[in-house]
Write a structure and sequence with these properties.
The complex is a heterodimer of chains A (491) and B (475). Chain A has a domain at 3-259 and 473-484: Amidase signature (AS) domain (Amidase signature (AS) enzymes, Alpha-Beta Complex). In chain A, 39% of the residues lie in helices and 14% in strands. Chain A contains 18 helices and 13 strands. In chain A, helix 2 (24-37) packs antiparallel against helix 3 (49-62), helix 5 packs parallel to helix 6 and helix 12 packs across helix 14. Chain B is α+β, with helices and mostly antiparallel strands and 475 residues long. Chain B is built from 15 helices and 16 strands. Classes of the chains: A alpha/beta (491), B alpha+beta (475). Chains A and B meet through helix 12 of A and loops of B.
């Protein structure tokens, strides 16, 4: 089976399946062979080979037609925090090591309805807390471009799987950069949708007011199709928007997009200067030049409060997480301490053994910022500054339609390099976090390489519910810079 | 012992009578096998999210309006964090600094007939927890109750005695029964009461240290627990002991309260806005729509019954304390057209039947229509009061209409005065002793003579006619 199938986009695969140039089963086998070949990347926690091949055979028997959803028969992987009924969902934590999902997440359900094949569950940072995917009970995920380096986190398994061609697309979640950062480190695309655009139902929560599931792919069309397949209102998630979703893939296929080139791109120059690798700066400037060449106007913008984003994030997200993670108590499901004597020791034992170091750190931090006497100084204040950050973006969007920024100030770092210092690890997310706080969408795309041949990603940040524009601009960039897109990082 | 002023406030939880739970679609039916009314949401499974039940909001709003609360157009759900096995998520979704409603009141009527306003601090929405069950070896958790919607009704510390507290609790129950937002079944835990009580030297402005007593789930327990607590605190204060701020439990077997936890041991609930739910927005038109569904409330009904049916306050209050009874009375009166007769019959015969059978009006087989048919027979003189009572019993037993029973048993009163006169004459001849006594001025024996006539007539003679005839003959 040739790797040329790996560089085929979903619409191309759908045509190959219709024309019987390849069967769904063969496509599935191709992926499972690769998953097994690249086991050392540690991108998966669970794989469903038997079930997937059976499903693929059934789809083959049914046949493929123009009327079928594009996702039909496409091998998809999910970060191991999406509920997939009847299978183990661990969130990369010991506390959920043997937790069998009792229901389907809305996103899972929608993928099943579109007859996608869910081949496995991806490794991740435990409870999505981390920027390097080293905080997993199942071990770190390796970067396929350089296996001595991190994949980025927290959706590192998803990013590595897509980058290394171990699944066609994947779904991760982004609370402070968790799809965009690993996408940037592994040379793929990822979308953090507007908050409320994608259902969080059945997605294990980290910080509820910031979490958004997001697709990850090797090319713009795949990303758009993945987005179209699952985005939109969900009656099971009260925070989803009832705003109608527009089919983005169909939009991308439209010939005439005159309005798109009239868009203005904002550049927060003053924000990008300090502490940013020169390779990242170089690629950022190249992207800027490319955008101008395509015909976009650019304008300098200020985001004066984004310098507080990291601080605000590390108050709000652990605060919410400390409550979200209370349900893992050893009472109804999950890890339970064996020798407990009373209720207190059951709680202490189960949670003490079940959670990893970074998760405990954030639970303690979160418990502190919500405590009586500290709430106003920390949580309430952070909520106020969050409003200021939102306002920054609103003001910026008076002058522009989208904002261009690097995803990370540096490229994928060495495994273990930042483990000793949580604070330096937290700095990875300096450019991504404000997007979650402002609840706006952001699309990360591969924009170039460092002198060490490591991928560097940029992000286009958009207006609320204007994912379409981000897709449109990125598609134009993709057509100009094809060498960065649709790369499979390993043989 | 010096004297102290008692200050009492109540926090009452009422389960709203919605069909499904507050944040999921599980049934709220009581008495199901443990852990059968459950789903991923109410068992706190990973990834599950709450979706607000609109009916619960409507019922909570209706309750708040019935207690004259000011409704907040924007209210916010908050997480109340604590660990307990019956709390699946490790937090309860409640409302904290921005509740549904505030600043309400209701009125209670004291023994001397005066009314007293009891302030309502706030009424907010929250979800119920499950239940822990223990046997000798193990503990179990039943989550059927977890997620059932509740309103918490917090009163101002406006009550000054256990009696007032009970009056308030009863009033609250009556109002909620009127508006039908909760079943108010105290045995099933629909209505649960916690009391805060403190004592201060008479006349002192500053409040004393308060003690909270949990789970006072009957009027009697509330009364007993508060009385015990007043006694305990009075003793303590009189011997210069400090009252400790704490939570106590009432032991209903021994009639005492016991310390459960001190203030320092109590939880820091770390409230913060629930990010999984948007703020609850209620516009005026919705509030008005719900307001229009409010029925006539007890106070208004009591006043109206006094006005329209000329009842005493006692009678009106008795009937109106139960919405069903009030409507039973009113329907009967409308058909019979005699407020006094209906009132006395319901007070004596009907309430006695309810008591004897330990049932409430809604379970009474004999409806207002049936009762009014019976009372009409009494009113038009077809039967007398005593026969009426027998017919009533027969109606309860057989479910047959009054008229049919009267006809079948030939109970109609004798209208033929000649026939009655004959019986009267017989009695005068037989009861010579009593007749002599009467003639000698002992008028009281008249009752005996009437009774004899009635007996001979099989109860069918009209007592008034008998009386008149006897007087005439003995004249």
């Amino acid at each position: 089976m040739s790797n040329s199938f790996l560089t085929a986009s979903i619409p191309a695969l759908a045509k190959l399946l219709r024309d019987k140039k390849i069967s769904a089963k063969e496509l599935c086998e191709l992926y499972f062979n690769r998953i097994k070949k690249h086991k050392e990347l540690n991108a998966y926690i669970s794989i469903f080979e038997k079930e997937s091949l059976l499903q693929a055979s059934l789809l083959d028997r049914e046949g493929f037609s123009e009327k079928d959803p594009l996702m039909k028969g496409i091998p998809v992987s999910l970060k191991d925090l999406f509920m997939l009924s009847g299978t183990r969902t661990t969130c990369a934590s010991k506390i959920l090591e043997n937790y069998i999902a009792p229901y389907d997440a809305t996103i899972t359900k929608r993928l099943k309805e579109k007859k996608a094949i869910i081949v496995g569950k991806n490794n991740m940072d435990e409870f999505a807390m981390g920027s390097s995917n080293e905080y997993s009970y199942f071990g770190p995920v390796k970067n396929p471009w350089d296996t001595t380096r991190v994949s980025g986190g927290s959706s590192g398994g998803s990013a590595t799987a897509v980058s290394a061609g171990l699944s066609q697309i994947s779904f991760g979640t982004d609370t402070g950069g968790s799809v965009r950062l690993p996408a940037s480190y592994t040379g793929i695309l990822a979308l953090k949708p507007t908050y409320g655009r994608m259902s969080r139902y059945g997605v294990i929560a980290f910080a509820s007011s910031l979490d958004q599931p997001g697709p990850m792919a090797r090319n713009v069309h795949d990303l758009a199709i993945a987005y179209d397949a699952v985005a939109g209102f969900d009656k099971n998630d009260a925070t989803t928007s009832s705003k109608k979703t527009e089919n983005v893939y169909e939009y991308l296929l439209q010939e005439n997009k005159k309005d798109l080139v009239k868009k203005t791109i904002g550049i927060p120059s003053s924000f990008i200067k300090e502490g940013v690798d020169k390779d990242v700066i170089k690629v950022f400037e190249e992207s800027l030049a490319l955008i101008k060449k395509i015909g976009f106007k650019t304008v300098d913008i200020e985001l004066p409060h984004t310098k507080y984003a990291l601080d605000v994030y590390y108050v709000i997200s652990p605060g919410e997480a400390s409550a979200n993670l209370s349900r893992y108590d050893g009472i109804r499901f999950g890890h339970r301490n064996k020798g407990f004597k009373d209720l207190e020791s059951l709680y202490r034992g189960s949670r003490g053994e079940g959670f990893g170091e970074e998760v405990k750190r954030r639970i303690m931090l979160g418990t502190f910022v919500l405590s009586a006497g500290y709430y106003d100084a920390y949580f309430a204040k952070a909520a106020k500054v969050r409003t200021l950050i939102k306002t920054d973006f609103e003001n910026a969007y008076k002058k522009c339609d989208a904002i261009l920024m690097p995803v990370s100030p540096f490229t994928a770092f060495k495994l273990g390099e930042k483990m000793a210092s949580p604070l330096s690890m937290y700095l990875s997310d300096i450019f991504t976090i404000s997007v979650n706080l402002a609840a706006v969408p952001s699309l990360a795309f591969p924009a170039g390489f460092s002198s060490q041949n490591l991928p560097i990603g940029m992000q286009l940040i958009g207006k609320h519910f204007d994912e379409k524009t981000l897709f449109g601009i990125t598609r134009l960039i993709e057509m100009e810079k094809q060498d960065c897109f649709n790369r499979v990082s390993v043989e | 012992m010096s004297s102290y002023d008692v200050v009492i406030g109540l926090e009452i939880h009422a389960q709203l009578s919605t069909k499904s739970k507050m944040f999921c679609r599980c049934s709220t039916l009581y008495g199901k096998k443990p852990n059968t009314n459950i789903c991923p949401v109410c068992t706190g499974q990973a990834g599950a999210l709450p979706v607000l039940n609109g009916k619960a909001v409507e019922y909570a709003l209706k309750t708040a309006l019935a207690f004259n609360c000011k409704i907040n157009n924007t209210s916010v759900f908050s997480r109340k964090n604590y660990f307990y096995p019956d709390l699946p998520k490790g937090y309860q979704i409640s409302q904290f600094d921005e509740p549904l409603s505030e600043h309400g009141y209701t009125e209670i009527t004291l023994k001397d007939g005066t009314t007293k306003k009891i302030g309502i601090t706030r009424i907010h929405i929250e979800e119920d927890a499950g239940k822990n069950i223990h046997d000798n070896e193990n503990s179990y958790v039943d989550l059927n109750r977890a997620g059932i919607p509740l309103v918490e009704i917090v009163s101002e510390p406006d009550m000054t005695s256990p009696e007032e507290a009970v009056l308030y609790f009863k009033k609250l129950k009556t109002i909620i029964e009127y508006i039908e937002t909760s079943d108010c079944n105290m045995e099933e835990g629909n209505l649960r009461c916690d009391a805060n009580i403190s004592l201060k030297p008479s006349g002192e402005k500053k409040l004393g240290t308060k003690v909270e007593i949990k789970n006072l789930n009957s009027f009697r327990f509330l009364e007993k627990a508060l009385s015990y607590e007043i006694e305990r605190q009075t003793k303590a204060l009189s011997s210069k002991e400090k009252i400790i701020q704490e939570t106590r439990l009432f032991d209903s077997d021994k009639g005492v309260t016991r310390s459960m936890r001190k203030k320092e041991e109590s939880n820091d609930y770390r409230y913060f806005p629930e990010p999984d739910l948007r703020p609850l927005l209620l516009n005026e038109s919705f509030i008005n729509k719900v307001k229009e569904t409010l029925p006539e409330l007890p106070d208004t009904k009591i006043k109206r019954f006094i006005d329209v049916y000329k009842l005493s306050y006692y009678e009106s209050d008795l009937f109106c304390s139960d919405k069903m009874l009030a409507s039973y009375y009113e329907s009967t009166v409308k058909a019979v057209g005699d407020a006094k007769l209906t009132s006395s019959w319901i007070q004596t015969v009907v309430l006695k039947a309810l008591n004897d059978n330990k049932i409430s009006v809604k379970d009474l087989k004999l409806g207002a229509q049936a009762l009014s048919e019976l009372l009409l027979l009494i009113k038009d003189g077809s039967i007398n009061q005593n026969t009426g009572k027998d017919v009533f019993d027969e109606m309860l037993k057989t479910g047959k209409p009054a008229k049919i029973i009267v006809d079948e048993k030939g109970l109609s009163q004798i209208h033929d005065e000649g026939l009655i006169e004959k019986i009267v004459e017989e009695v005068i001849l037989e009861a010579t002793t009593q007749v002599e006594q009467y003639r000698a001025g002992k008028i009281a024996v008249m009752g005996f003579l009437v009774g004899m006539v009635m007996k001979k007539s099989g109860g069918k003679a009209k007592p008034a006619v008998v009386n008149e005839l006897l007087k005439k003959k003995l004249g």
